[in-house]
Amino acid sequence: MKRAISKIIFLFCFVLMLAACSEGNSEVLETSTNKTNSSEAKVMKFASINTSDRSITLAMKKFAEQVEKETNGGIKVEVFPDSQLGGERDNFEGLQLGSLQASIISTAVTSTFSPNMSILDLPFLFKDNDTAYKVLDGEIGDTLLAELSNQGVIGMNFWENGYRHLTNSVKEIKSPEDLKGLKIRTMESPIHLDMWKELGAIPTPMAFPELFPALQQGIVDGQENPYVVTATNRFYEVQDHLTVTQHVYAANIFMISKKFWDTLSEEEKDIITKAGEEAKVYQREVEQQQANDLLELLKEKGMEITELSVEEKQKFTEKVQPIYEKYSKEIGEDLVGKLLEAAK
Ligand code: EAX
Q: What digits encode the pLDDT tens for the residues 237-293?
């Protein structure tokens, strides 16, 4: 009997103790939530597939510092380079969901969400960087960026990825005929796939983070990217030949999740817009320098660099003409005509 009573008392005390504990816990929880709410900085996760030493990441960091400073810490920008948050499609979908707040994504991958964007990847479109900037920073660029809001994304401006050049591990490429039977990784974008089919290669679309292992394991023979991408990702370790094809001028879009954008005050939007413009100018400048320096590095690393004569390049240009017809039809002759005029 005595034992039974003491057992009941013990149990009663134990229950009381548990209750006290859980109450204590919830208090702690409450205070910590209150604290976060009152001192809450808006967090802007900013992702890219680029390496941490590339112009793009340097400009992202510059943007981060400026925004944090000018909002007095009200917006905290966290930079994630090196595909840490996945490939470009993952990033775009993250922006749509609101799980990611900002990213730098190629026009090519963006065009699978917003098809008109694909016209910027028409082959041999821009004769030099300045012409590209004029179109991207002008009316056509603005129109294409504005269309992204239908996809839950705010298109801020265009940063530079640069002229794309072909590399491979098999042989020197001087003409479209040389491409026969060569497996080339392309971006996950219909226009790039179409282009490499027309040129006579076997295109294999793949997300960027999968590219190095695919080259290393011989799943593909080649890839195409600007000098800076080929160098900063050490593709020269698994690719011997580079042809200066300059087949596409590639732009990357600085974009922000609409879900995040809608939480910002007008003042915060202005700060972000201004910092984004300054980051773009800075990025293009640093990128030009890196492109020069890193072409030299590719040579030092032993890549064979093949320049094409005007006649040789002409053969590539002729091969891709059907792309112009196809995309004029699909996207609309008006817009494509306007683009061709502006790119002259
Ligand atoms: O936007 O995937 C690629 O080859 C691109 O050049 C890269 O994603 C940068």
A: 999 999 999 999 999 999 999 999 999 999 999 999 999 999 999 999 999 999 999
Helix, strand, or coil (residue 283): helix
The finding on whether 232 has its CB within 6 A of some atom of ligand 1 is no
Per DSSP bridges, beta strands 165-168 and 241-243 are: antiparallel
Residues 263 and 42: beta-carbon distance below 8 Å = yes
Domains in the chain, start-ordered, CATH in brackets?
A: 41-343 (3.40.190.170)
Best residue among 49, 103, 215 to mutate for probing ligand 1's pocket (most ligand atoms within 8 Å of CB) is 49
Among 117, 191, 229, which residue has the most ligand 1 atoms within 8 Å of its CB, making it the best to mutate? 229
Confidence (pLDDT) at 258:
98
225 lines ligand 1 (CB under 6 A): yes
Mean of pLDDT values over 330-344: 96
How many angstroms separate the alpha carbon of residue 137 from the centre of ligand 1? 21
Ligand 1 in reach of 106 Cβ (< 6 A): yes
Backbone angles phi, psi at 274, to 5 degrees: -65, -45
pLDDT digits (tens, 9 = 90+) for 79-133: 999 999 999 999 999 999 999 999 999 999 999 999 999 999 999 999 999 999 9
Task: Give the whole-angstrom CA distance, residue 27 versus residue 48.
Answer: 40
178 in ligand 1 pocket by Cβ < 6 Å? no
